[in-house]
Amino acid sequence: MSIHIAAKPGDIAETVLLPGDPLRAQFIAETMLQDVHQYNRVRNMFGYTGLYQGRRVSVQGTGMGMPSLSIYVNELFQDFGVKRAIRIGTAGALQEGLHLRDLVIALAASTDSGMNQIRFGGRTFAPAASFSLLKTAYDAALTRSLSPHVGTVVSSDSFYPEDPEEWKLWARFGCLAVEMECAELYTLAAKYRREALALLTISDSLISHEQTTAEERQTAFTQMLDLALITACQ
Ligand code: HPA
Asked: Given the DSSP bridges, would you call strands 195-205 and 103-111 parallel, antiparallel or unpaired?
């Protein structure tokens, strides 16, 4: 039992999928896992453990943004001994070559967040993915003809920034997409010496202003989810 996760020791698997939306966690548990046990409903941030192809895996909602994700991931690593954390989320495209529903595997994450500014006293840290999880996910994606984009993302504290052109700076430095959680996930994995990876589907484009429909998001999400579960259970 930790402050935000009402689970007992052993309730949570060593590998956890992390959707931002707790209803996605519920959907994954109900449609993809067997022998499911719900271990958390505090603040409706649902968490479940079940079996995927006979392997134990958990799925925990994190909420949106780094402060929220940080609460859940700190507790998963510190209090429940979680070894591998795989974020599954959406991101906005920052490069012409990225299209709606494309899959991005985040190699590393820049950030405008105050969290690492505070943590490192104004110094910069380079939050990066686990090479082993990344390689597993990449190889599995290729065998499924998914053509993932592997590269850097930017994790922003603001979905609605004061300067709507701010993303262009990150785009100039090669960031593929913007989302709001990855830098904190990778930083915490480094701190606790665990493994982390973020799989992201492109839900909108800051260049063209296109957005996916709910139906398109569901199809892309299902592909990403399959990949995340395969990566989790390797
Ligand atoms: N900005 C930040 N986070 C996001 C976006 C975006 O455009 N799209 C999906 N997550």
From this structure: antiparallel
Task: State the CATH number of the domain containing residue 67.
Answer: 3.40.50.1580
pLDDT at position 29: 98
Confidence class for position 15, pLDDT limits 50, 70, 90: very high
Domain count, the chain: 1
* CA 190 to ligand 1 centroid distance, Å: 24
- Nearest-CA residue for ligand 1 atom 2 is 179
* The two structure tokens encoding residue 129: 């993915």
Identify the pLDDT of residue 162: 96
Give the distance (Å) from ligand 1 centre to CA of residue 205: 9
Task: Write down how long the chain is.
Answer: 234
Q: Residue 5 domain-assigned? A: no
Q: For residue 199, what are its two tokens? A: 């799989």
Band the pLDDT of 149: cuts 50, 70, 90. very high
Could you tell me the CA-to-CA distances from 18 to 13, 25, 199 in Å, in that order? 13, 8, 10
Asked, for residue 206, whether it belongs to a domain, the answer is yes
Q: Which two tokens stand for residue 9?
A: 């020791």
188's tokens: 């915490």
Task: With respect to residue 203, please indicate whether it lies within any of the assigned structural domains.
Answer: yes
